[in-house]
Structure formats: structure tokens, C-alpha cells
Amino acid sequence: MQATFTLQEGQANSVAFSPEGNLLVIGDSLGGIFLWEIGGNRPQNTLRGHDEVFEDEEVESVGFAVDGKTLVSGNLDGTVRLWDTATGKLRANLSGHKDSVLSVAFSPDGKFLASCSLDGSLRLRDAADYSMRWDRGGHKDGAFSLAFSPDGKTVAVGCYDSTVKLWDVSSGVLQSSLDVHVGSVLCLSYSPDSRRLAACGSNTSVVIYDVKEGRLLKKFQGHRMFKSTGVDGNVEFHSNIGAMQLSPDGKILASGAEDTNVLLWDVATGKVKSTLKGHTNRIKSLKFSPDGKLLASGSDDCTVKLWNVPEDKDIPQRK
């Protein structure tokens, strides 16, 4: 482990690296947005502090524009907010979603800004002036996560009903729908070639699908399972895998869950290569640095940990 960033009180809901990899942004459950310089021991900038705390100010998702000059946050109050990275000043406050905004992201070419919400909608805006390009509903019982394909042609949306909707960015036309069988789809991540899509959620697995063929390629199970009784009286098992990302080269998959562990998987073999221990509560967010050498993990234990991603020769295989 390289470093631990401790928040004042809030849980670390979302983390993201700047395009150059020198900054880490953290969004927390009390409305705080903090910029940390990698290697520093205190926030470089605080976009919102804890002097006034409102329940609907919770930050659900954060990210950088491709030039690093703008930050975006998706918030529990249904707004999408744009911030100046250098000054920390609010640039725009976008309304329109009728419920919590659970995921936000800029497109790889920097032209578009996408947001999805618990109200079941996906919105695509022009990143230059934030005007609406298109607005799509139909994500049953809520849109929980989104990811742009690296080629910028598709935006994938993970839904409560365990489906992933694939939308054409230029036209807003639904290309296809995948039933990924992971429970509510909490996180999505594309492979570098845009051909494979990883998904995780409230049950026990992380899966990778061939996007074009809609075919399951890999299934990863390794997090501790918890038993509970459903409303119908049936016993259910779950791992609540709330965070996951493929490395920039697509060779490693990181997953974090309710068991407080971060697992590093070899995508080719489907085996766990390393277990990162140190958090004391569930993992909410994972992000690789742009060069793939660092991994940030945000947790409900009010910390963000920065891990060195070991080279293949340095990773002992888990028995």
C-alpha cells in the first residue's frame, strides 16, 4: 500500500484519477469533494466541505474531463455539477433528473457528458455548453451505472433489473440489451478494444461479456458470500460487489465488495492473483491510474487507499 487518505466523516462513495494521473478526486457521503495530489498528505483543494451538511448533498459519482480542467459530480439531489479543477469554483449546476444521479462520465473524446439516475433515465449532453443531445428512459427501476466504450461509439448503462442497455452515442438509438445476471448492476468497465464489457452487482459474481455477440466470456467468483432471508422467506446468498474496474491494458480486473477485500484477477486465466487487505468496511469505488500502476479504493470506512499494482512477476498466485 502506498498511502491512505482519511476523510473527516463521510464515506468514500467515488474516486477518480486525473488524466495525467497526478490528482485523485474523492466524492463522499456528506457532500465533500476533495482533490488530493498523489504523494501529498492533505487535500490540495476542497470543492465542498462539511461546514454545512445536508442529506441530499451526498456525492454519488465523480470524474474528470479529458483535459483535466473540469470535474463532474453526480449527486443525491438529482443534479450534475461541473467544477473548475484549478479554482474549485462551480461552473454549472445541471438539473433535470427526477431522482439521485448515480453515475457520470465524459466521453473518451471529451465531446459529451453522460449521466444516469435512479429515475431510470440516461442523459447525454454536449460537453462544450451542456446542452441536451438526447434523453432516454426505459431503465427499469433505476439506472445505476454507466460506461463509455473506449472508441466512444457506445454508452452502456447498468440497471436495477440486472440488464445492461447499450446506446449508440451519436443517435441515441438502443443497440442491444444484455441480461448479465449479477443483480442490480452497480459497476461497468470496458476492455481497451471496446469488444468486452465487465459488470458486477449485488450478487456474487463479476462477469465479462462479448458485446457484439452478447455472449458470456468469463465469470469471476471469489469474494466472501453472505446469507440473508428474502421477503419471500427464501434464503439468498450475496457478496455485494459494489466496485470493479479493468486495468488500462485489460489484463487485470480489480473488484471490491462487502467483505472489505480488493481482489486482483488475471483476466486471461480467471484466477485471483492478489488480495489487498486493509479496509474495515465495504468497498464502494475502485479506479486504476491512467498508467495502470496505481489502484485507488474508496470505502465506507471513511478512507481511500492507494495501492501499488504489482507486476506479474511480483504477484504470488493465491492457492
Helicity level, as a percent range? under 10%
Spatial shape:
globular
Largest sheet, if any?
Answer: 4 strands, antiparallel
Give the total of beta strands: 30
Alpha-beta classification: mainly beta
CATH superfamily annotation:
YVTN repeat-like/Quinoprotein amine dehydrogenase
Number of helices: 0
Which CATH class applies here?
Mainly Beta
Distance between the termini: 22 Å
**Average pLDDT reading:** 91
Unreliable spans: 49-54, 314-319
- The quaternary structure here is single chain
Protein described:
It contains no helices and 30 strands. It is mainly β. The chain has a 4-stranded antiparallel β-sheet, with no helix packed on it. A 4-stranded antiparallel β-sheet has the order 2-3-4-5, with no helix packed on it. It has a 4-stranded antiparallel β-sheet with strand order 6-7-8-9, with no helix packed on it. The two termini are 22 Å apart. The model is unreliable at 49-54 and 314-319 (pLDDT under 50).
In short:
The protein is mostly beta strands.
What are the key terms here?
319 residues; mainly beta; Methylamine Dehydrogenase, Chain H; 4-stranded antiparallel β-sheet; disordered C terminus
Describe the secondary structure blueprint for this structure:
Elements: E1 3-6, E2 12-17, E3 23-28, E4 33-37, E5 43-48, E6 59-64, E7 70-75, E8 80-84, E9 90-94, E10 101-106, E11 112-117, E12 122-126, E13 132-136, E14 143-148, E15 154-159, E16 163-168, E17 174-179, E18 185-190, E19 196-201, E20 206-210, E21 215-220, E22 226-229, E23 235-238, E24 243-246, E25 252-256, E26 262-266, E27 271-276, E28 283-288, E29 294-299, E30 303-308
Antiparallel strand pairs: 1-30, 2-3, 3-4, 4-5, 6-7, 7-8, 8-9, 10-11, 11-12, 12-13, 14-15, 15-16, 16-17, 18-19, 19-20, 20-21, 22-23, 24-25, 25-26, 26-27, 28-29, 29-30
